[in-house]
């Protein structure tokens, strides 16, 4: 019997899942505060942050221009290494780098830690891009005194996102821990519970602990759209979300609460009906699938980097996702 192909999801619809719709928005970084209880000096000056950021962006620009990920590890690590490598692999096949990979040179604010131990992280918030995409939250990490700072994570802030206030760079902020107390949830639990909410939506027992956010809403909308096409072809789909161990960075806000950036990987499996093939559903998926042979089932692996603000336990507030990055990194037939 001649095989017929499963109805393809439009590339426009799939883009919603890969990258939350981060439209042009006004910059929402709050003013920093000059009040601090920190006793240690910040580990960097603003000039040093600008210098290290410039060196990292230079490496990224060279890789982007060459559409070659080989040199990234010099200044990129963690989830961002997986995300950027995938973006460059796709660019090699399509001829164009995704505009969402743009990182502005200018910044609105940098949050410099006072912690004298390693590893240590710097959180930097950029301006909007020249084409009015949303601000980026960059997380730079230094593993040891002798290692270079590297770009560990990048999150695109949601439209209208409100970030907490942090100490001015001359005073510095304290990094948090995965088991920080005095919050509505420890950072580790908040990330695990958010992964459950991404997977189960309103059916998650933790759904009530989080405010609505753009990533959750876009994923729900995309899943519903894809489901219509899959049902028409007697197929199925499923998504699983898994927290990546130790891939979490935390900065304590000036007036309480933690800003948490963490990696949650996901697998989206789509199965066609009997006698049908499940095919790549976008140019990005085609590029990652390469010359693979299609079967009735296809699995797409994503890296999701999320930013959550966890308020204090006495605030009466819920956990709020303020930004995310979502990128397919592998496409394979099952």
Search tags:
334 residues, 10 strands, 27% strand
Q: What does this molecule look like?
A:
This protein is 26% helix and 27% strand. It has one domain (4-333). Strand 6 and strand 7 form a beta hairpin. The longest helix is centred in the first third of the chain and has 21 residues, at 46-66. It has helices spanning 11-18, 46-66, 78-94, 187-200, 214-232, 283-289; strands at residues 4-5, 107-111, 120-126, 136-142, 150-157, 236-252, 258-271, 276-277, 297-310, 320-333. The strands form two sheets. An eight-stranded antiparallel sheet has the order 2-3-4-5-10-9-7-6. It has 334 residues and is an alpha+beta fold. The chain starts with a strand and ends with a strand. Helix 1 (11-18) packs antiparallel against helix 5.
């Amino acid at each position: 019997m001649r095989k017929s192909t499963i109805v393809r999801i439009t590339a426009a619809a799939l883009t919603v899942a890969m990258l939350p719709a981060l439209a042009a928005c006004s910059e929402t970084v709050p003013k920093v505060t000059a009040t601090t209880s920190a006793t240690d000096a910040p580990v960097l000056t603003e000039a040093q942050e600008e210098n290290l950021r410039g060196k990292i962006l230079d490496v990224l620009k060279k890789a982007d221009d060459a559409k070659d990920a080989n040199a990234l590890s010099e200044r990129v690590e963690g989830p961002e290494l997986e995300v950027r490598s995938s973006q460059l692999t796709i660019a090699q096949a399509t001829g164009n780098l995704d505009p969402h990979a743009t990182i502005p040179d200018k910044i609105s604010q940098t949050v410099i830690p006072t912690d004298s131990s390693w590893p240590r992280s710097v959180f930097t918030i950029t301006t909007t891009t020249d084409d009015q995409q949303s601000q980026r939250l960059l997380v730079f990490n230094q593993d040891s005194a002798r290692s270079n700072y590297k770009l560990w994570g990048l999150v695109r802030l949601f439209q209208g996102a409100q970030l907490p206030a942090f100490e001015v760079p001359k005073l510095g902020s304290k990094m948090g821990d995965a088991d920080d107390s005095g919050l509505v949830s420890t950072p580790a639990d908040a990330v695990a519970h958010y992964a459950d909410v991404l997977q189960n939506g309103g059916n998650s027992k933790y759904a009530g602990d989080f405010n609505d956010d753009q990533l959750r809403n876009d994923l729900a909308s995309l899943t519903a759209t894809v489901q219509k096409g899959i049902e028409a072809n007697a197929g199925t789909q499923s998504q699983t979300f898994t927290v990546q161990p130790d891939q979490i960075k935390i900065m304590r806000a000036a007036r309480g609460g933690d800003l948490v950036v963490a990696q949650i990987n996901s697998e989206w499996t789509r199965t066609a009906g009997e006698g049908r093939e499940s095919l790549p559903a976008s140019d990005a998926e085609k590029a990652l699938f390469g010359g693979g042979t299609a079967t009735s089932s296809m699995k797409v692996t994503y890296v999701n980097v999320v930013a959550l603000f966890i308020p204090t336990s006495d605030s009466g507030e819920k956990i709020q996702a303020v930004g995310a990055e979502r990128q397919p990194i592998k496409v394979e037939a099952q």
